[in-house]
Please model this.
Amino acid sequence: MFRLIEKLVLWENANNRTVLDEAHAEILKSTGGHPPPIYDPFCGGGSIPLEAQRLGLEAYGSDLNPVAVLITRALIEIPPKFAGQPPVNPAAKSKMSGKGMWTGARGLADDVRYYGQWMRDRAFERIGYLYPKVKIPKEHGGGESTVVAWLWARTVVCPNPACGARMPLLRSFVLCSKTGKKAWIEPLIDNECKTVEFTVKTGEGAPPESPKIGRGAKFRCLVCRETCPDQYIKDEGAGGRMGAQLLATVAEGRRDRIYIAPCAFGEGA
Ligand SMILES: [Zn+2]
Model:
């Protein structure tokens, strides 16, 4: 039994039919030919029902979390329905040879890849223009790159009547805290015009102190340094008076993510 388990746990044997059949035969032997069904009431990602299925057992799972249920159904309920079937997408039809090549879920996987790409392409045709590429600053090698994320801060108007600046409600200026790859947002404060703009800094140094103070929605105005009470920000939010300000654009670099300041965002983009 232990020797069988030693073989079962080897990664290379994950799809080894001989070993799995051997395990199934052993289970049949110890259950008089009537193995019990396996039930995992809190199945999460479905690994226990999946393993039971791999050992040839009747498997059941449940979970309160609908995402877990969806993942488990996709993992253990759908693939067996298409087991051994060839894919139906036109690209596979033209390249298809012998029947033997679509064993297990290979045919289904080929269809998921094909139609997944198809959906991505159709979506890109319709809304792709909303996701323009970003121009990479010269110090990062120049050229264009795909945007991973646009980082925004919500804003409210500073309640100090002498100020009235747009306060970015930021929890932290840190973009990346990994050693050697440190990056943060540096606010550029214009006390005359009462505006705040943002730039991106990397290398040595440390990000400035965050405008968030303590718990809840308490923030400091970056222009007048006045503390703004929690209730004021909540009222502005509830009243639909919150704004938003772009902090940085995150783009795919050759090896790492590149953080680009809003002012460096390509012209016309
Ligand atoms: Zn202020």
Q: What stands out?
A: The chain has a mean pLDDT of 90. Residues 134-264 form one domain. The pocket of zinc ion is lined by residues 158, 160, 163, 165, 221, 223-224, 226 (CB under 6 Å).
